[in-house]
Amino acid sequence: xxxxxxxxxxxLMLSLYGAxxxxxxxxxAAVAAPTGAxxxxxxxxxxxxxxxxxxxxxxxxxxxPVTAVNIWYHVGPANEAPGLTGFAHLFEHMMFAATKxxxxxxxxxxxxxxxxxxxNGSTDFDRTxxxxxxxxxxxxxxxxxxxxxxxxxxxxxxxxxxxxxxxxVRNERRQSVENAxxxxxxxxxFHQLFPxxxxxxxxxxxxxxxxxxxxxxxIKEFFTKYYGPxxxxxxxxGDIDKAKxxxxxxxxxxxxxxxxxxxxxxxxxxxxxxxxxVVVQDRVELPRVYFGWLTPSAYTKDDAELKIAAQILAGxxxxxxxxxxxxxxxxxxxxxxxxxxxALTSMFTIDATARPGHKPEEIEQxxxxxxxxxxxxxxxxxxxxxxxNGIETIMLSQVEKVGGRGVANLLNEYNxxxxxxxxxxxxxxxxxxxxxxxxxxxxDTYLKTQARVVVYGVxxxxxxxxxxxxxxxxxxxxxxxxxxxxxxxxRNKVPGAGPAPAIKLPxxxxxxxxxxxxxxxxxxxxxxxxxxxxxxxxxxxANPLAQPGLSSFTAQLLQEGTASRSAPQIADEVAQLGAFLxxxxxxxxxxAQMTSLxxxxxxxxxxxxxxxxxxxxxxxxxxxxxxxxxxxLAQQRENAGFVAARVEAAALxxxxxxxxxxxxxxxxxxxxxxxxxxxxxxxQHYVPNNAALIVSxxxxxxxxxxxxxxxxxxxxxxxxxxxxxxxxxxxxxxxxLVDKPGAPQTALRLSNIAVDRKTPDYAPLQVMNAALGGLFxxxxxxxxxxxxxxxxxxxxxFQYRSLPGPFAIAASVRTDVTGAAVSETVKELRAxxxxxxxxxxxxxxxxxxxxxxxxxxxxxxxxxxxxANTYVYNLGLDYYTLLPQRFASVTDKQxxxxxxxxxxxxxxxxxxVGDQTKxxxxxAKLKLAPVEVRDAEGNVK
Length: 941
What we know:
Blueprint: H1 25-29, E1 45-49, E2 55-60, E3 66-73, H2 87-94, H3 106-113, E4 117-123, E5 128-135, H4 139-152, H5 159-178, H6 183-193, H7 208-213, H8 216-226, E6 232-238, H9 242-253, E7 276-282, E8 288-295, H10 303-314, H11 320-328, E9 332-340, E10 346-354, H12 360-377, H13 381-398, H14 407-418, H15 424-432, H16 436-446, E11 452-459, E12 509-512, E13 518-523, E14 529-536, H17 550-557, H18 567-576, E15 580-585, E16 590-597, H19 601-613, H20 619-637, H21 640-653, H22 667-672, H23 675-685, E17 691-697, H24 701-712, E18 735-739, E19 745-753, H25 762-774, H26 779-787, E20 791-798, E21 806-814, H27 818-834, H28 839-851, H29 860-872, H30 879-888, H31 892-902, E22 909-914, H32 916-924, E23 931-933
Parallel strand pairs: 2-6, 7-11, 13-17, 18-22, 18-23
Antiparallel strand pairs: 1-2, 3-5, 3-6, 4-5, 8-10, 8-11, 9-10, 12-13, 14-16, 14-17, 15-16, 19-21, 19-22, 20-21
Helix pairs in contact: 2-5, 3-28, 4-9, 10-13, 10-16, 11-12, 12-16, 17-23, 19-24, 25-28, 25-31, 26-27, 27-31, 27-32, 28-30
């Protein structure tokens, strides 16, 4: 698994409607929609099986020149033997090692250079998947890569590769479980739900001991048993020719031997017959309560009813737990509920984080009351309808794209769990058949008090178990590989690309209302969804210097009450429409955005217009959101990565610059902000002549013009407050430490102030950064992760803003290599400055930027966001049309020039958030002075 998604997720917007399904599947998939319901798309697919047992599923659509390759191996923790927890996940990492015909690292280099996006793998309880989305002329490259993993991994697999990935996976555990707030608390929930010998006990990631104890022979045996073609399914979706694709699949996979027959896991999950309780200490400020139950398996009876129940309980602001615990009682910071569907058993979970000053016992009591009410009275018809509408919108959002979690992955999921890749219509239908009585019965049957687990996560010193040493690096004697399939020498040659497809990106059309409101429209009828957002050219950069966080606070209050709707009414109406409403603020803009079904877009736009034009900032809502934001600050103090980012802002810009603070601001500023302050910011910035309405989806230009005029035409223009003038007051420190006693990792950042969004150096900077730390195969990630095993992942990026924004390198590294990680990072910076990129590295970095651009337009929401970017920074609607050529023309000299101009290692501030007693001595050897010590809020101590 790769932790960093440095490129926009790619996909193609499938033209699914009206397309007949192949091989008679249309009749199977067609389900008559209830009156007024959204029609269910038919995904045209073909499914066949190779003689060796590999299932192949093809989806042909030529909307964009992009193709997704998605392969599922039907193996996960469910298949693990006792004592090998985390083994399936570790093996997922091993599949990215060298294979017989593809040396280590080459596949990632070739795919990124070809413009692949969303190139990754993942492990769930019952499956492991690997996926790439590539330009359609590079399909053969993706098949070459995936097939060599399936057919020729064991030929060259060695201890060196295993040792490296053990380090990487253990770093992943430190980052995602041990150093993440509530990570070990959630893990404890699984430990209570299942006995130690149950494959779900380890919650996928496994333990340090089992990961470190994995032997090369174990790896080989696991591959031989589970990674044969007869235990896999391959989906290829997008811009393909089915006949030619069949030939390619046969060429690359047809000669492989079938593996041994794989039996389904024969695992009995013991029922929970009496309540189990445990208290877990963690490095957190706010207590959190978890409930957990064992529930019916995925796609079986009552699975849908329990998913609807989870949505009713905690599916947004219209849900019962939000209204009760967060809104009315104001005792919880957040709530969640989920029916986590899996093959052996599902897990229904509820969680709630206490608001500052409240106890877990109080949270549990309130959760119990709402559960009992749902058991006793059941839901209402309206609640069922809201939950179902929201689920259907989420499902349609999945089929907007082919890659990632889109169509290709969805068909593979349906194929594994139901045997029917075309199950989408039946899936939606099972939710449409859910009744009030069915939900009440399911809740009463499965969510019993005596059948649950209760876990309290409370502030304290976490118990991470005994330390498992990382073996010292040493030379490993080469061992002969194990061949399963006969060698085919033609595989040594990297497949050539087909004719390059033309890159044609959505440009949109613009018109302006009489009041000055800019309207940008992109027509995309692929799915019956519409994404809209109202963006204003004022963000945190417009905050008065004494009021950090004001723009974000104002945006948050937009959906908390208008002249005609209360906050609960807004939440209920959004849910009833099956829509999703969000508001927020960035450095240079604020926004209100809505995703809705085409059929409900007029009502959704009416609601969007209301919250932007008529917010009332009710005093009681101001107080609710003030308390919520103070709670959010407490939660961010628990997260080392957030702390590092907050310290970075304070150190680079100082207290008298709007960029010197995070979006939440400070607790003091939050407490001092008045209703009048919020109203004033809204009045000075939320005016049509400072705003744009951006809409992408299944709506024509004429339809949008009529709606925009009707909903926004009466909005009065106004004078926009001038920008805040400020000069950064950058800290003189070269090293800043924030103490987090006992932390297993150090959150590192190396930062300085770089450049603004309108810089003419944008294209060479992006190409340079791709090579340095923007790609998975970048110099930094190759060094710190792939070669040294110091981290789960490292990235670098330029944050482009109206005023010069930060350049930052960020990573979470093992505590004992903190100093070494900084030293290696600086070494890579100096190397980037010292000499130009090689022709190969330049080509790879440049092509990755050019060919991955369609990934920024994979969904209506991403199209809308990209067009908002052109508006906020005055880039012009043709910006993305011209950008490919700008990237393509970048030279090695330009890359070296911008590296010399902007990287400046001697000016970087190094920030380390970790166990100071262990990391300070390491960093002292680097002679970074002066040194500052700050607290988690960025204040100098």
